[in-house]
Amino acid sequence: MTVRSSLALGFSFITFFASNLNAGFYVGAGLGPDTIEFKQHSNTIKPGAFGFNVINKTQLSGTGLFGTFFSGYEYLHNKLSLSDEVNGNASSSFFKPSNNEFVNSNFASSRYKINNSYGVSLLSGYQFTKNTLFYARLGYSKAHFKLITTDKSLENLSYRIDGFLPGLGIKQNLTKHVSIR
Questions:
Q1: How far apart (Å, rounded) are the C-alpha atoms in residues 81 and 139?
Q2: pLDDT, tens digit, 9 for 90 and up, residues 29-87
Q3: What sign does the CA torsion over 138, 8, 116, 150 have?
Q4: Beta-bridge mates of residue 89
Q5: Residue 153: how many other CB atoms lie within 10 Å
């Protein structure tokens, strides 16, 4: 099973603990919509005269909200910015499919969910104006995936998955110590 989580749109407020507008240590929090995409591949075989062999390839997606806390250090030199950052996230995103087979009265449902994640990122940017920074993010994230199901062809799962987390963004300073991105 392959799982990928992506942020559609989010708002983050950052407080800087440095005298410079775009440099130093920072902490922040954010809230926004969240989208999760699941790719599931299964093969169910029942031998015998009335047996079957079913191959199922499914792509599912779910939506919800996420919250994030992050902290890092930003260095600015000649309009070029470099930051390292750690983050922790909580998510309400899930997908709940059902399978109703009426001939044999087999009714099943599943719930796919990513509860939380944490990661590290490197942000490299260009200071377009004194208050605007364009940046690219290269990160690594580890998430808690959970599948709870009554479907006999699937099993209940709960484990950590990891992956590469790329992104692009804009940071806009609102005051000397607060910005939005």
A1: 16
A2: 888 888 887 777 778 888 888 888 888 887 878 888 888 888 999 999 999 999 999 99
A3: negative
A4: 68, 117
A5: 13
Beta bridge partners of 30: 12, 68
User: Quick one: average pLDDT of 110-132?
Assistant: 92
- Own/partner pairs for 6-13, CB < 8 Å, 24+ apart? 6/35, 6/36, 6/37, 7/32, 7/33, 7/34, 7/35, 7/66, 7/167, 8/32, 8/33, 8/34, 8/35, 9/33, 10/66, 10/68, 11/180, 12/68, 12/70, 12/180, 12/181, 13/178, 13/179, 13/180
Q: Which residues pair with 104 in a beta bridge?
A: none
Distance of CA 176 to the CA centre of its chain: 30
